[in-house]
Amino acid sequence: MTLLFWSSIFQTLFSCFLKLIIFYLCLVCYSYQAADECSKQNGTYYNKTCVDYETSMSLGLRATVKLMEKKTPAEDYFLRYVLDVSSGIDESGEVKWYLALCLLLAWIIVFGCLCKGVQTSGKVVYFTALFPYVVLVIMLIRGVTLPGAKEGILWYITPVWSRLAKPQVWGDAAVQIFFALSPAWGGLITLSSYNPFYNNCYKDALIVSTTNVLTSIFAGFVIFSVIGYLAHELNVDVEHVVNQGAGLAFIVYPEVVARLPVAPLWAFLFFIMLLTLGLDSQFTLLECVTTGILDCFPDVRGKKTIVVLIVSILGFAGGIIFTTRGGVYWLELFDKYAANFSVLLIAILECLLISWNYGTDRFRHDIELMIGPRSEAWGLFWSTMWKYLSPATLLFILFFNWINYEPLKSGDYVFPEWANAVGWIIAFQPVGVIVIVLIWKMIRLSEGTVKERFLTLLSPRNDWGPAVDTMLKSGDTEENGVIGEVLSMDSHTKVTYSLESSI
């Protein structure tokens, strides 16, 4: 729950930046039309002013512009004006009031959408799920028509096999999947609990996973077509255009949006799209936290609005540090440590508990109760994946990252040792919570040795069972689209798994 809480804080920071960039694009701090007109007149466009050739030569502006470090207007505005970045994490500086207000606005929106439950947030999914594709298609059409787009796309699709030997590549890939699909974060478990029992979760999982991969590939073409253009404009190599992280959303995309006809309109639509996508992720994370609290303290279930309000206030207070001048450094610190090692560890524990302790045969049987019987080949394939391939892959990525660990860097800036120490504390805090809960539950068991208590926690409870009035076996009856024979069960049975629930 701690991991979800902190991740929700720094994800909200992304939302608070969006409004500021919208104002930037609407005000047009840099005019490409004016720069082009100045170039046609053999002048030098400098500091929003077209300087004629004689004045430019007398002041040495051409030599200055030629030798100075090239930055895009979006990058300069984002770093210098929106963030007002300090020299390092040691210098957090003052709170930027406009960022704090945007953070407050983001949390007010989240609270307003979740105070009545997930039914409210679910209504906007039809728009937020389809609208991004419309915007991405338009941006791709515009991006591929820009000079240098071909070089950017070729750089994107050309494999560099030597990079596969770097653990950071595998770690980033794993974190990307964990962020995109949210396994081991609790969001899937929380939201799936609202599905009907006989919902085809297997088909949903395949559709979501495939769509996620294809969308990421498609978005890559959009991004690198623009990055290729920026490399052409700055006369540098593609890999030197922009760093990973927030720069992609707040530097690269604004560049292509600013070049579309009626730029302020598309800027508004694009950042509204980002805002809604970020809010959707925030809804899921906050729902996980509040659901965990309500499950642990059933007496407060009738006061969900108050619980959501308290969590939102704490989230806003915890996010204040990200609105300081050094907030971007804290964001990168949390991004590296909070959502990397701990998520991998939790995912490994879940794989081992389900496949080796609970058993793949039981797990397959539970799934087939919901989606109907499957072939032996299907069961063998997924049993092998759950039992061997998935945990082995996760363990490989985790150990590879630990062995080849490097202190955090942001461009040329190297984070101090104390910051990395704080990062490791953040990384293992969620795992520490699991250990503490495990010890607490073992203490609560009054009978048996330590080993016996531990084994008891690893066993299904006596009241385990499907949370429905009926369950299905092989037969001829069809109910809710699943073929099977209906067998009566008690209406009070529930699905409960002690240690998994604790995690």
Give a concise summary.
With 503 residues, the chain is mostly helical.
Structure description:
- The chain is mainly alpha-helical.
- Helix 6 runs antiparallel to helix 15 and helix 8 packs antiparallel against helix 14.
- It starts with a helix and ends with a helix.
- It has 21 helices and 6 strands.
- The N terminus and C terminus are likely disordered.
- Strand 5 and strand 6 form a beta hairpin.
- It is 67% helix and 5% strand.
- The longest helix has 34 residues.
- The strands form 3 sheets. Strands 1-2 form a two-stranded antiparallel ribbon.
User: In which order are the strands of the major sheet placed?
Assistant: 1-2
Mean of residue pLDDT values: 75
Based on helices, strands and strand pairing, what is the structural class? mainly alpha
**Main sheet specs:** 2 strands, antiparallel
What is the tally of beta strands?
6
How far is the N terminus from the C terminus? Answer: 9 Å
Which stretches are poorly predicted, pLDDT < 50 over at least 5 residues? 1-29, 469-503
- State the share of residues found in helices, binned by percent: 55-70%
* Helix-strand sequence: HHEEHHHHHHHHHHHHHHHHEEHHEEH
Tally the helices.
21
List keywords for this structure.
21 helices, 503 residues, two-stranded antiparallel ribbon, mainly alpha, single chain, two-stranded antiparallel sheet, disordered C terminus
Task: Present the secondary structure layout.
Elements: H1 2-27, H2 32-40, E1 44-46, E2 49-51, H3 53-59, H4 61-67, H5 73-82, H6 97-114, H7 118-122, H8 125-144, H9 149-157, H10 167-181, H11 187-192, H12 201-234, H13 246-257, H14 263-296, H15 304-319, H16 327-337, H17 341-371, H18 376-403, E3 409-410, E4 413-414, H19 417-444, H20 450-457, E5 470-479, E6 482-488, H21 498-502
Helix pairs in contact: 1-6, 1-14, 1-15, 5-13, 6-14, 6-15, 8-12, 8-14, 9-12, 10-18, 12-13, 14-15, 16-19, 17-18, 17-19
